[in-house]
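Before relying on records like the one below, remember that each one covers exactly one chain. Contacts with other chains, cofactors or solvent are not represented anywhere in the record.
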Amino acid sequence: MSETLKALLLGDIIGQPGCRALFLGLKKLRKDFGADLVVANGENSADGFGILPETANMIIDAGVDVITSGNHVWQKKDIYPYLDSSKKILRPANYPPGVPGNGWTLIELRGMKVGVINLQGRDDLPPIDCPFRTGRDLVRKIRQETPVILVDFHAENPEEKEALGLYLDGSISCLVGTHTHVQTADERILPKGTAYITDLGMTGPANSVIGVEKEIAVRRSLTQLPIKMEVADNTAWICGVAVEIETATGRARSIERIMVESRL
């Protein structure tokens, strides 16, 4: 077993431009960073809202090992049976009992196990179960199998994200925020060894407003009308981080922010 594991964690895949960027760019990106594992948030991959089974299959075929999600995962009902049948796609673990799917998984690679947890915040999002208590309990369970644990925290509020990162610091390898589609510049190793960034950004159209056609976004703001949003269709980028983790301890050695343009 190698001393370290290298993981790529990629921000929300937005519609067809995001999928194209991933399909065209992930193989090179994975090679450039020597990544052993790729985790990507796919909840907006189907026309910007939700995810479909065929889209999930293409994302996995492109080289993503685990698809995480968030509040939009429920928008396409065709995905519900897929959430139950596949261990490669997650929904937030802190939804109440009885909803489809799984909130965490264990991946086996290179003779070791890696835990991946998906959580969702509650500030300006549905008031589901507590991500702090759910995260704590899952980490205790998974650490019986492996110290290498990656967390996607799909949340709106930076305060909530930083608080959870520090709450779990030292018990997980990294916590990355998703949901806002805007990459933050605060990547760092927390005091007890957990890699952290408030938001990975998005894998989607660069010339847009959080992935949406800019003209529509401006009109929505000017008029305050509920105009239907449409995914922008232009050159996309892949945003995320590369994290190097000690396999024996689960502590992060480094975290590097990624923003790579995909030229179609």
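The chain has a mean pLDDT of 95.
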